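Reopening this ticket.

The earlier resolution said the output was attached, but the attachment link was broken on my side. Pasting everything inline this time so it's all in one place.
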Amino acid sequence: MRNRLLAVVVVGSLLTAASAFAQGKISASPTPLKVGGAKVGFTTTPVMLTITNIGAGQLKVKDATLSGPNAAEFKLPGLPGFPVNLAPGVTFTINVSLTPAQMGPRTATLTLGSDDPNLPTLGVPVSGSGGDPAISLDVGTMSFGNVRVGVPSPVNIGTISNTGGADLKVTDIKIAGAHPGDFTVMAMGVPGLVQANSAAKFNVIFKPTLLGNRSAQIVITSDDVNNPTKLVGLIGIGTQSMLSYSPMALAFGTQKIGIAGMPKSVTITNAGSDAANVIAITFGGANGSWFGLAQTPMLPAKVPGMNGTLPINVVANPQALGAGTGIMTIMTDDPKTPKMDVMLTTSGIGGSILVTPNFIDFGPIAINGSSKSMPITMKNVGSDEINVTKFTLAGDNPTAFTVEQEPMTPLPIAAGMSVTFAVLFKPIDEMMMMMPMAMHYRAEIQLTTDDPKKKLIKLPLDGDGALAGIAVAPMMLTFGTVAINSQMPRDFTITNTGDAPLAVTKVTLGGMSAGSYRLDSPGPFMIDGKATQKVAITFSPSSVGPLNATAEVNATGFMPIQITLTGTGVAPVLGVNRPDLVFPDAVPVGLISDSEVVGIKNGGTIPITLTGISSSDPTVFTIDSSLTKFQLPPGAETSFAVTFKPKMTGAHTGVLTVSGVGAMATVKATGIGSLPQVRRPTQPTGCTVGGGGPSGTEWQGFGAAGLLMALGLLLRRRRAR
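Inline output:
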């Protein structure tokens, strides 16, 4: 609680100290104070004096008193009650008037008392006069000279002065005379009061409505007893420009593109009485950029009146082949002809060079090798001759490029014609290194021509000095076991790991068993950068057992690379279960026996593919292999069927051959052909079997045995059918 009281006391003391520094400050305006003048015995209109507290604290204005030579003639009507307290920034006013007792200047001092510690009394000089008003003008006649009809002139300023002792009342100011509508007066402060020994301004503007001399008067009316009316003469001349131009079109004909031709003129004529001005000249239209001024005039450019002229010189500079049009627009300050359009035409001719291709990238070329020739054509696609004036091979690596059939300069090329030359890229190992490094080469062909659009043509040339690389995979080819005299293909891949072409000079076979292998692509051949080439090798063993060899790849710039070749030759084993096939029963001639089955077995260690089963006499010993399996893994079995059909009586012998890849087995087949039973047509006195004809076929036998033989023969015939 004690601390709080102490804080209150301290704060209160600070506020009291701050208030002591915040003080009021008095100010009065205007100073000195002019109250004007009046006739002796008459009172002027009161004027106001403003008192302001311009300080930071309260201001107390205690009183206001008049003193001085003529203090009794000045009055303070409507004076407020004193003291007047003013907060910071607050004002109040005091009215002051004069009732002169004599003619001439009257003076006094208005003293203000206040509690402003720095200015407790403030004296404001007060002045006025007594007497009659007296008007005076500084000009008798205002002359505006030549002014364009309808256009206001610059302002002319006149002054009304009051040289008398009393305030002058200006009661009226107006325009009169011959052409009052051509002039305008703007008074500042009048009609009204002009204090004694003061002045007022008035402005006058001349805006002629017609051509020729124009005049009027300013009539000023006041309470000056001696000069109640004053006149100011006004004179001016209305003028007018009258513009025309010729020609309205300019034809420049044919001109070389990019070259400004001879200028042609458009003449502007002013038939009026007043000067006019060209304020802007612009070019537009479809090909406005093709045209311009030969000399750019300083704008605005004057066209004098009374048939004065102004030439405008124009040039054409076509920017492309063919016809071009534009419009020149001339802007003026002539109200009747503010804009003039001139049509412009020309036709561009000239050579135009086209270089193809415009860029050549040779890609990767082996270091110290050479690219193919790349043709470059320069064609004049324009309508006029063109000249190649200079030919330069420049850039970072110009020595790596060679120009063939380089044109001699200067080289003229007629319209529609072309000239061709060629460029080679030859990357050189400039450092003569044992192991050169790949790098990028850059140059450019520079052609200087008189084609205004392509004075300098740059044709970039790029190329890479590249190296070849080699990789072979796999490094070993394994063919496995292969039957003698059969074939097993395999291949390996040569990869060019570089960017330059790889020259494979040859691929050779070597080793103890090289004869068991065959090489399909011995070379030479080229492999492009990052490309591959497969090389096929076929293993065809000629003997049993391991047969190993090597394949060697030889490439330019690289050590030989060997690929190991391994394979084993094996002999297939093909067997039959009935190498001697005997048909047990005699078969009558022309009939077919029952089938006999022969078994086939792969008795070796490698698969056998059967290629066929044949008979030495297939009309006698017929083979049925419809159920035979032709692929036999090791140990597998299959079979085929054989029938016997004798051609004649007696023994028949044939050979059946089972063929497989690398193997063969034979079967000796034996059979007996017998006579058929005698057959003759008879009367049906015996036994008839079948219906061989209209009367049937009789088989004559000898008792029961003969009948059984006949039945057997018949069954065989039916089975044969």
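Reporter confirms the inline version is readable. The chain has two helices and 56 strands. Residues 379 and 418 are 4 Å apart (CA to CA).
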